[in-house]
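Batch manifest, entry 17 of 40.
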Amino acid sequence: MFERMTEKKKEVRVVRRIVLIVALILLIIIGIAGFQTYSYVTSALDPVDPDSEEVITVEVPIGSNLDSIAALLEENGVIEDARIYKYYVKFNNESEFQAGTYDLLPSMTLDEITESLKTGKVYREPLFTINIPEGLTVEEIAENVIAEKTSFTAEEFLGKIQDPAYLEELMIKYPELLTDEILGENIRYALEGYLFPATYPIYEEDPSLSLLIEQMLDTTQANVMQYQTVLEEQNQSPHWLLTFASLLEEEATAQSDRQTIASVFYNRLNDDMPLQTDPTVIYAMGEHKDRLFNTDYEFEHPYSTYQNKGLPPGPIANAGGSSLEAALDPAETEYFYFLADSTGENHFAKTYEEHLANRDEFIGN
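Output type: structure tokens
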């Protein structure tokens, strides 16, 4: 009996040791998990990248709730974790976020992001802004914007956007937008037409050329890729869209109906007629002209739509949103000709005879 009691005590001690070891292991696991959870939550409450100056444009649609806004912010890399942000917002009793377009940064705190969404404007004020008007070429952007507003010269900017190594980096970063079409044999500037016209906030005193260029490309991608489904249905590429839209942008006046101008171009393309749009000749010649003469129309160049049928090899300017939309949604007309009078109003014609009559009436000799 004594031996059995001794043996039983040994078994109890073994069981206690096992229980103690299991308990210690569980405590260690719980401790590690708790520390990892604490570290993750702490990290998610901090800015994604405190040193980043990248501007991320986020579009918050009307009617968005907290779940969709948080998911949108995480998807765009503005916050680390959508669930943590939702708990943070609810804990601080924040609400009434506003729809709109926000230029946010990964370096913004959750408070700054929340304040921006509540007020409907970016909480962080830029040091200055750069405005790219619609219809500028990359040379005009270089001379009239970059050289005027930054420490870079026009030559440095143009050199950057023609640097093969940098273009390769951009094509990797924007694979759907920047395809091999931008490197075509007759392309003058690979990024012509890809620097979207808009007002860009700058948060650095001396921003790099890469930052400036990629801000513009980010905006172009946001505006172009919203039509990705339509482009696929029409078997067209972003390059085609930006090229077509650039012709509309250059032909447009303050009173222009871009959709009707687009219909003229479509009708000519469908009838295998050259587009014969003057801005392509001016771009081909590489110099600004207020008026073209007969000899100019005979200038042979891949970009001239008088000498070549179809669209030019690439965009001839940077088009705005209204031109992009018109390129994909033209009016239905039977017009093949148009001209603008001195007030900027366009006059359309179905036949060449009607076009000549319009020229005599609204322009004269």
